[in-house]
Amino acid sequence: MTNLTHLTIRAALDGLEKKDFTATELVDAHIAAAEAARGLNCFITETFDAAREQAKAADERYAKGEALPLDGIPVAMKDLFCTEGVQTTAASKILEGFKPPYESTVSGQMKRDGAITLGKANLDEFAMGSSNGTSAFGGVVNPWKRKGDNRDLVPGGSSGGSAAAVAARIAMGATGTDTGGSIRQPAAFCGITGIKPTYGRCSRFGVIAFASSLDQPGPFGRTAEDCALLLKSMAGYDAKDSTSVNAPVPDYAASIGQSVKGLKVGVPKEYRVEGTNEEIIALWDKGVEMLKDAGAEIVDVSLPHTKYALQTYYVIAPAECSSNLARYDGVRFGLRVEGDNLIDTYENTRAQGFGAEVRRRILIGTYVLSAGYYDAYYNQARRVRKLIWQDFIDAYKQCDVLLTPTAPTPAFAIGENLQDPVTMYLNDIFTIPASMAGMPGMSLPVGLSADGLPLGLQLIGQPFAEETLFKAASALEKAANFTDLPQTLMGKAA
Predict the structure, then answer these.
(1) Is residue 206 part of a domain?
(2) Enzyme catalytic residues
(3) What is the tens place of the pLDDT at every residue in 213-249?
(4) 259, 235, 233: which is closest to 440 by C-alpha?
């Protein structure tokens, strides 16, 4: 039998339909892979018994000819999505043991379509980080290694557990959330594909909030088509989310393989940032040529306010985080550390429940929202954000999509940048502008660095034009023909 953990979602669905194997066999193969790779620390909570029961139900539906769109497909669910009756922690001590009495809209829709959750994937605490090094449950290890260097590498963040699980063939797909690059950057570091949809495309109901005007759920897959199949299930209007956009959800997979002849691809000059790894710049140039050879028209564009995006993000995101995380006070749910009085209890609970990075961002956010600084920092950042959005709108008068690097470097060693938060924040320099503007962005692996690590390129699309992104991504994917596996999986593919 084919090695079931190396199939794409599309190939697995075809195989299940043809009865080449059962959903139970597919799920068992991935559970065995997850058990063998526990050293990667991809899951905070495993739900293997429930997954086996769901697989049996999927097999019954296949036997009756009543299969659902994602029936039997094993996935990882980022532990930021509330799952009814299953521990949901946001990778924080303050929520350890919390079992929500309700289901997030995204996880509910995936369950409705037959997807099977193997467990809750590890992440940076409250999605704050770019390395998966801030989790209260320990960092996730990237399945890739540098040539001649056995040090463990970060998988990127915040959705590092989700990305590593897909890359390590533990799950066929996964959910993530992207606030400033938390789907795209881990996808690049782990050699897989990930898409942040347009803000408002996927419901945020039941997703533990970091920065409400930026957070957006999206999928990870091994191919653009896998992401298209997952996004179809995740997306849609939800009356329970006031930022959800009431727009039809297209059949994204239908865009895969379409010609890009005449498609205008913009190349923004501002993304040639000093300090970016030279291999990544060379890969970007190669990606431009790949799309040009596929029939696309290359257009030089300018996004002049890009240089302010990082600073603007680190005013707005902490401000919203400060507001959102005020609810964790030891009174209503989660950790409670008693004090001599109510104020003591608040302070003790939050001091012991939150990690250093979360505390740092709460303090920054509280400062920029405080009297005397609100206009100087927060309101000014909002005005700059509008200029960043306008840059994208102006650029799209000349092109259909933008092509940029995803991250300025390949994956780095665990602990390498943790002592310098500014260096860590720079990891999101290429992904933050699209997040600030609410545009859809997608990363896919296009090549390897000299030391054998995956490098990704990013496509940024117009609002609610994910279909165009998938069309361009599939053309780039075909040209790049990225088939490399993490060194920890060498020899295990069929």
Answers:
(1) yes
(2) 78, 158, 182
(3) 999 999 999 999 999 999 999 999 999 999 999 999 9
(4) 235
